Amino acid sequence: MLCTSLSSLGELQTMNKPKIGIITFGDNRDPEWNKVFKQMTVPRHELAVEILKTLPVELVSVKEPARSREEINNQVDMLKTEGIDVFIAHTPCWTSPNLVVHGVQRMEMFTIVLGNRDMSTHGCVGLFGASGALSQIGQSHKRIRADYTEEMYREKLLPLLRASAVKNRLKGSVMGYFGGRSIGIDTATFDPMGWRKQFGVDVEHIDQVEILRRAELVSQERIDRMREWIEKHAKEVLYNDDKFTKEKFDFQLACYIGTKDICKELGLDFTAIKCMPELSNNYVPQCMTATFLPDNFDGEEGEKEGLVMACEADGDGALTQQILKIVSGGLPTLFADVSHIDDDEKIVYCVNCGALCAWYAGRNEKPEKNLNLITIKQSIRPGGAAISGFFASPGPIQLARLYRVDGKYRMAIIPAEAVTPDKETVEKFVEGRGPHQLPALFAKVNFSVEDFVNEYGSNHISGVAGNYTKELVEVCKMLDIEPVVFS
């Protein structure tokens, strides 16, 4: 039976939260351990574990600190079998640096060396001894010195944990690349082997004809289930006798369902689809795929995990969206053009026929409530069929974009606020853009427009609900990307 309500986004993010492993390292000398350091290390190990459990992470830990190579090996091997995203080497007191190095090298992943500010613990000695040794051998790590409070861990540690999850989960992932460069957009192209080297991401090239072929195989029952759900809950479905007939819409929905099937069978983690001009001119545009694929619910399947989709075969756009999806804990992402900038109001108009998935219409955990705000109407593309029309609901929005300058990646990081346009703005928008309105996000920003115009490296932009500027800066450091924060 079809599920009619989506579990809360909090539950969704719980399913996708970073998986953290922690080992607390203790002094390996029995006299010093028993007389001094045990009574300081064990309570702080327990406190660190207790605080980490309050954060939006999945924690894997053991009860006791590790003090010997054998104990370190056993704990490291256990964490590796759990498939953690990031390793925390907790050094609350003095511990032999070589043992920390041994554990980190055996773990073979990005490490956070976690110390504290308590004068009584000799914490600085343990932190600097371990991290200094890691620096000598070129081991990638980050040092955090923080009080044992939830506030401090959220501020200093959580952005790193989320960023580490991005680095770990990108490695070995696969983008499905349907078609090739679309309508001459050079900034949407990318180097597949460069991705393999820098990010560990593979690319599966798929011809767009496969979407058409698979659409023909989709049963009418599945199509009806999807279409009837849309017809029941959308604000309007404006069929006509020309380009937006029910038959056209059925084929467009079959393309969406067929694309879902391809992604599942090939194990794709995110996608970019060319669409224009071949599909949009001669068959149907893939706008319903853009509306529903990144969302976490649809009328054909019910509750599902959203799958990133970038339009116009924008590889760097899709990769940006995948980073935003991971760093946000699995939230739906958006894709759009930087269509216009209101210099006076500092509002960026983010508009594209395949711009926003349905969730952004209302940001509601009940998918029907989002669909209630969406008009399904005829596309202006020669192939006809449908697009969705709505203004994104207000709330914090993290905009971002990977782009390259002389072959080196940079990431534009733009904290923003989605705002509801007033009547005058909408009227000017319609007058300027014409009656055919596309999904649109009005993003209030706080940056120098001139600086943005002179630096920004694409006509496209990506986004996700929330603010993850700190996390994205850390992601850039880990992935050899130059962060460019506009705020």
Outline the structure in words:
By secondary structure, this protein is an alpha/beta fold. It has two domains: 9-170, Rossmann fold (3-Layer(aba) Sandwich); 174-485, L-fucose/L-arabinose isomerase, C-terminal (L-fucose Isomerase, Chain A, domain 3, Alpha-Beta Barrel), CATH 3.20.14. Helix content is 40%, strand content 22%. The protein is built from 17 helices and 21 strands. It has helices spanning 9-15, 30-52, 69-81, 97-107, 123-136, 150-170, 192-198, 209-217, 220-233, 246-266, 278-282, 287-292, 315-327, 367-371, 423-433, 449-455, 469-478, and strands spanning 19-24, 58-60, 86-90, 111-115, 141-145, 174-178, 202-206, 236-237, 270-273, 297-298, 302-303, 308-310, 333-342, 347-351, 375-378, 386-389, 395-405, 408-418, 440-444, 460-465, 482-485. The protein has a six-stranded antiparallel β-barrel. Strands 2-1-3-4-5 form a five-stranded parallel sheet, sandwiched between helices. The protein is elongated and about 90 Å long. Mean pLDDT is 93; it is low at 1-8.
The CATH homologous superfamily of the largest domain: L-fucose/L-arabinose isomerase, C-terminal
Strand order of the largest sheet: 13-14-19-18-17-20
Q: In angstroms, what separates the terminal alpha carbons?
A: 47 Å
| CATH topology assignment of the largest domain | L-fucose Isomerase, Chain A, domain 3
Largest sheet: 6 strands, antiparallel, barrel
Question: Kindly state the mean pLDDT as a whole number?
Answer: 93
Task: Flag low-confidence runs.
Answer: 1-8
Structural class: alpha/beta
Provide the number of structural domains: 2
Q: Note the quaternary state here.
A: single chain
Count every beta strand, where a strand is a DSSP E run of 2 or more residues: 21
Strand content: 15-25%
Residue share in helix: 40-55%
